[in-house]
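Dear colleague,

Following up on Tuesday's group meeting, I ran the structure prediction for the two-component complex that the binding team flagged. I've pasted the input sequences exactly as they went in, so you can double-check that nothing got truncated or mislabelled along the way. The structure tokens for the whole assembly follow below. Feel free to forward this to whoever is handling the docking comparison.

Inputs:
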Amino acid sequence: MIRIEPEPWARMVAHARATYPNECCGAMFGVRNGEGKTVTAALELENVSPGPQASRYELRPEDLLRADREASARGLDLIGIYHSHPDCDAYFSETDLKHSCPWYSFVVLSVKRGEFDHASSFLPNFDQTAADREELSY
Amino acid sequence: MPKILIPTPLRQFAGQQNAVEVGGATVGEALGALTTQYGDLRRHLYTEEGKLRSFVNVYVNDEDIRYLGKDATPVQEGDVISIVPSIAGGSAVETSAPPVALSKEEVLRYSRHLIMPEVGMEGQLKLKQAKVLLVGTGGLGAPLGLYLAAAGIGKIGLVDFDVVDFTNLQRQVIHGTKDVGRKKLDSAADRMHDINPFVEIVKHEVALTSDNALEIIRDYDMVVDGTDNFPTRYLVNDACVLLGKPNVYGSIFRFEGQATVFAYEGGPCYRCLYPEPPPPGLVPSCAEGGVLGILPGVIGLIQATEAVKLILGQGEPLVGRLLLYDALAMRFRELKLRRNPECPVCGDHPTITQLIDYHQFCGVPAQPAAETAPQDGDIDPTEVKARLDRGDPFVLIDVREPHEHQICHIPAARLIPLGDLPRRVHELNSADEFVLHCKSGMRSAKAADFLRQAGFRKVRNMKGGILAWSDKVDPSVPKY
């Protein structure tokens, strides 16, 4: 179960809308309580995919490292990565799975015709062969 | 001792510490020491075979060890080791080995492809998996639709909202005389399914606009542009660049055609070639200037060839080269094209990052001016007829070309082609009253502007040209 507080959620949705028709990506900071997670802050990161950014995203490792240090400095954990799927549903694609990491929750925001539509969260396994759906509230 | 910074999500497995000091002379030894000390961390960093997981990147003092000595990168007192996963993704599905197979019937159908090593089973399966969007099922779309269907492209999307009429049949060979009055989409899809029932055809009965283009194009691997107007051409171009889909371009006029592949992996786009559209009305359309019926066959099949080559990954794509074809001279020429780093859409610092209003950009109204709003100085054909019958004193001038005059004309009209007007203007008395006409009213509007600028006061433009004359006054005048 992952819960995203209103302030980071608004920031993520605004980021996804602003980046449309391209995909956006960013980091989510928060706290863990057992199996549950609460996102209390979001940080926009640059999509550095050299491919078509309308259907691809890539994080610069240095940016992720910086984000992790920022989370740490704020007494939070980097608990998830978000990205948008313009004009398609918030599924966890083969591409998402193949380049994922089991340490994080992956929140996907579906943006249709420039407007937020729906979102889902996923927990990939260690071998990046499957991802479980994670209950998401925002 | 070197220090390993623990990523925040892993701290729960490392006693909630943000950094751990460990022994070891190399990165490999240091990480080994870490995971020995904190066993729960091991599976997060290593596979069961003991290899670093593919998503784990390791940095020593902010340098990626892949560019240093990898696992064997030496570390010493004071070095900081960071662990960071590589994360990417996206809605696009990565192309993997084609899981589909050909049926017995398909093997027979495509046998002439299958026996060529450049296509073979692998290539034919690529064609079957390919999704191509054809914008327009007119002159260029007709040969494209026929041959792409025959070649076995798995999914072909068609965008058109027009209806077949008699003037189409001289070149749009996908439609027949029996199809006049039918939707082009239905007519084209029927013919394509007749050629190849194994092809999936998706009909998009819409005008491609900034509101729907991304949504429609996103589902396809590439776009083949068979449009005949500038707003749609810029729209297709920008949408293809934004979505990273190749745009197989072709255009035709009279006896000449062009073809190239835009927006393909670092190649130029349409805006690199034509940053600005021509002023409205300067470049006549095929409806105004005519086109040799065979010409779109040649150009459309060059586009079809390029589409198939891109799918197969064979040969040298027509990227960075604009192929020019002159049917009268029967010559092909090539112009080199380069991506413009300053291009507003595909350049290094693009300023166009979403679709714009292309009708406004090209200076043309989204819809033809409403019938009920006559321009200043317009006159209806019925009024021209009434004035001729009354014997009113005015001069009727036909500004079309002599060969058009031969097709049909209004007996009272005097022929002065638009292009001859400047040097023949002295034949006219600026005190007289003039009514100008052409085929549909565009050229005569230009001629009227010219005369007004030359000091003529009483100049009117017959609205709708000789086509409207045929509709409203004399149906025996043939329409062309």
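Chain A has one domain: 2-137.

Cheers,
M.
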